[in-house]
Amino acid sequence: MSNIFDITKFDSYKEDNRREVKKSNGGLPSSLWDTYSAFANCYGGVIVLGVTENKDGSWRTTGLKAENQGKLLKEFWDTINNRKKVSVNLLTDNDVEIFKLNDDIIIVIYVPIASREHKPVYINGDIFNGTFRRNHEGDYHCTRLQVKTMLRDQTDNTIDMSVLDDVPMTDLNYETIQGYRNRHRALKPAHPFGRLDDSEYLRSIGAAAISNIDKQLHPTAAGMLMFGDEYNIVRHFPEYFLDYQEILDPSIRWTDRLQSSSGEWSGNICDFYFRVYNKLVTDIKIPFKTVDGNRIDDTPVHEALREALANCLINADFYGVRGIVIRKDTEKIIFENPGYSRTGKQQMRKGGISDPRNKILMKMFNLINIGERAGSGVPNIFNTWADQNWPEPVIEEEFDPDRTILILTFKKKHRTKTSSKKQAIKTSDKTSDKTSDKTSDKTSDKTIQHMNKIKKYLSKNGPSKTSAIASYIKLSSPRTRAILNKMPEVSHDGPNNNRKYFLK
């Protein structure tokens, strides 16, 4: 974790999502264990003992001496290995370092991110009252919902494997099933599943299973999510909601919208995927290629968008709040799903490890050549965007509620010169040319209002993350970040994932 603590940068540090200081002159503070739990259940972090904050947030040593070192470390290791106090010890000797500053010592404890098998990390033997997470304001108690989410993720059997014993097979949507089977046959005409009747086929792909209760065939949770009707799905997943939002004209709130609850279509994952994918690629200006004289419309960009959409659905926590949201505008596409990344966003970016939240859904998508099983899907998206010379994709992870967000931004393109020899830029770029004065003025007024709200918030709360500001002004994090970057009176500090904004 050298990227979040470097002794040579001590004077520049302040407390944030991944750094916490404790005085510790009179022994280990009890709050240390709250922070240990919080870091382990979020991004990881460092706890620095023998340091306190000045009024301006900067750090100073507290006079901790070498003769106190042994006693403190013994107390620390005795406590962290006491299961009545701490649920699991994630540390080794290499995770604790001693430094000397100004004749004082500091003890630096590096807390890693806990694996899902170890989450939740809790204290005092109380899983619901002793589980913490971290935000820009410090450590906070997790809700029962957050704890239950972490408990669900502990097991190797994912939630979509469960058999819905009280649900008849007739509750599945026949038209969706046939559409899926037709795609499977077209892609893999020699596949042995093609010879099976519908019941055996659904059992073979994991959409149905024999119940241990009545020994009859019933849909699995995956089968219901993939092939059910929305009104049946929400009986088992009350928070289930799929939402596609398209804004290609700033003067119109939605140029297109697709919601699972509309009642105008099935509302299931399978139909949502294909409807939304077709909308995502409608205006993607990527040259086609030819093979042996035949036009090939598929490109790496199309493949990347399929991967991004499938990844969003496969890794969603369908018990989580706020549902799945896909947003498309003229410059970017945002994929947002409930649930934190089971591998962590750094490993997600790196690839090589596949740990889907819904294994059966992944299998069903893989059968029709959608999605990567080897954990290479997200790295492939990054590589494709790099090849196109587009801005690097952004992965964001939010807690309370848990959400994973992937932002894919397209390179801005300008129109050719008009007949009047004036260069025109898309209205969405907020130009001031005469043809877009009205729209631009309207947008500018709203932006000014948001800027005033941001200044008021920062004046009251001090350095704050984008997510906190966005929540206050009721905008998306990407939109809020864009406004912040336009404000000359606002500065920022820290890397992208932990950046805080403040008034100069």
Quick overview:
This protein is an alpha+beta fold and 504 residues long.
How do the strands and helices of this protein lay out in sequence?
Blueprint: E1 19-22, H1 31-40, E2 45-49, E3 51-53, E4 59-61, H2 66-80, E5 96-101, E6 104-111, E7 132-135, E8 138-141, H3 144-152, H4 174-187, H5 198-205, E9 208-210, E10 217-219, H6 221-227, H7 230-236, E11 242-247, E12 256-259, H8 269-280, E13 289-291, E14 294-296, H9 300-314, E15 324-329, E16 332-338, H10 345-350, H11 359-367, H12 377-387, E17 394-398, E18 403-409, H13 437-461, E19 464-465, H14 466-473, H15 477-484, E20 490-493, E21 500-503
Parallel strand pairs: 1-2, 11-15
Antiparallel strand pairs: 2-6, 3-4, 5-6, 7-8, 9-10, 11-12, 13-14, 15-16, 16-18, 17-18, 19-21, 20-21
Helix pairs in contact: 8-9, 9-12, 14-15
Radius of gyration: 26 Å
Number of domains: 3
Provide mean pLDDT, rounded. Answer: 87
Globally, the shape reads globular
For the record, what CATH class of the largest domain applies? Alpha Beta
**Unreliable runs:** 413-443
* Relative helix content: 25-40%
* Largest sheet data: 6 strands, mixed
Q: Specify the structural class.
A: alpha+beta
Per the CATH scheme, the topology name of the largest domain is: Heat Shock Protein 90
